[in-house]
Amino acid sequence: MPTPTFRPREGPNPPPSHGPQIMNAIALMEADKFDQAISVLRRVLATDAANGHAHRVLSNVLLLKLDRRPALYHAQLALKHAPAGDAEFLYVLGRQMRQVTEGEEVASVFERAVTIDKAHVGAWIGLSEALLFCQMFHAAVAAAERGLAHHPYSAELLMNKALGLENMGRADEALALLTQAAHGPHAGHLSINGAVAAMTNYAYHVTPRQNFEAHRLFGQLLARATPPYGVAPTLAGRAEVHPGGRPPRLRVGFESPDLRDHAVARFFEPLLGNLDKSRFHTICYSTTLDPDEVTKRLRPLASRFVECPMITDHALLDTIRADKLDIYVDLCGLMAGQRLAVLYLKPAPITVSWLGYPGTLGVPKVDYRIVDERTDPFPTGPLPSSPLPPGLLPRSPFRATDPYNAQELATEKLVRLPECFICFRPPDADPGVAHPAGHARAHSGPVFGCFNMAKKIGDPLLALWARLLNAVPDSRLIIKNYALRSASVRDTFTTRLEALGIATRTTIEPPNQYSRDHLARYLDIDIALDTFPYCGTTTTCEALFMGVPVVSLVGRSHQARVGFSLLCTIGHPDWCADSEDEYIEIAKRLAADLPALATGRPALRQALLNSPLCDGPGFARRFEHALDSIWAEKTAKPA
Questions:
Q1: Which run of H or E residues covers position 635?
Q2: Residue 608 lies in domain
Q3: 478 and 609 together in one domain
């Protein structure tokens, strides 16, 4: 997704009414004198309550002060009193409003702007972005195409079109579109190449080497586009001032836009809550625009929790460097809200990537990436927790446990944790693992299900699932994800399913509003199907929590091996397939005994809860050892 604007700015043209006062307020805002700016604007509105310009600038100032509710109030008044026929006014207002309200309301503002001025490229970009943020992907593609009709060389519109296609499950098509642009009119374009790199995680026919090269190229372009800033901190003298070379408390910072109700927080909290505070001073840098109850729960777990939304890269870099960290951990990678320029500019002497992104970043100067022995194996190969059952089918040219050197696919040095590279916090909502007594199954045959994001479900994967349904008589499939809230996306999925002949055997549905209802839907599923090449993480853990086995196809890159890591960690490497044929055979074998699956749900949940995957204290000790090893390696004196 596109990264939101961090500090919305007003245009340079003075408004017709109370122009000098409003321009003075803008100057005060630009100088970060927010309270003075507010006073000026309130005086204007006291005599001219219908001044749309004053309401808009006041909304902007309040937004920069993080007073979100009054910022929205004045933005809506600005919209009510918007000057007629002023597309630029609406464009600037829309950019502000997307920070504080839902995408559909913002989209309507940009739609008004392009109705007035069809040549306003910024408004077309804003419209397609707003539709992406509210997951109206089909509409986003249509808006981007309408904008491209007027501005055929707009990189931003092209990228928004591709993002819409990707999120509709058409990752290969989206990647082809951007790859052509990256080799043509947009060669060397940083955002286009970043999107290409990220999309290679989803495309079925991209090789691990191609994925790596795309990320490495992006990193080179980022380095070229990011000028030096300030003095990067170094380790010079740090180890020498402490006995044994290690400070009593290593200062470790974690930065993320997702320290909120988000999958990243679900896996970060067990670490943050269990790190030894006597040995590690932890500082969280939260750039989220939407703090919530999860944010509130995380705050006291850190030694210090810094909330820094609406802040520039340089301001964030200054903030982090002032804290004199020893190690900085990026939890975002190339995902939405990324701050890779900050990471490249070295906010701390040692920089680490972990958790938020499923592979190498390709960014120079990032020292380490924390993974595990199964997601990113040694040349000698990872070891499953128990032997794979022999003789299921003839194997593909490689097995999941065959050795290969994952380090060759990373620009960072890999630090491999024993067991799994993440730790799962089970959800608070718990509908239980069984229907109430007397509940009748809605369907007598086996029910497969996948609740992963639509962009992980490409045509080759749907074709594999069609083979599975045809191989298992009377079976059905349930697909549920956020993109399916859109009727047009549902229609697109239905067309794809019809082409495979499985539309009548597949239920597609939007997500449930509440977590408990979402989890309860697993009660109607016998076997969960993992996606490929980008495996599920949260969805796999949730399925296991609900006692549902997961079948995963294993590849030779990190994002294609997360399911392997999770399932081996709970003792089920037998649910991991080395080929499409074996994927089908494993699912068929499980589907052959539905009563055993039903009665085995409580035991499967307990296996998850008793495993290292849910052992917060144990995971924290392993992570601490990794940080200590990183510090020791970086501060070791040459022999």
A1: helix 616-635
A2: 447-614
A3: yes
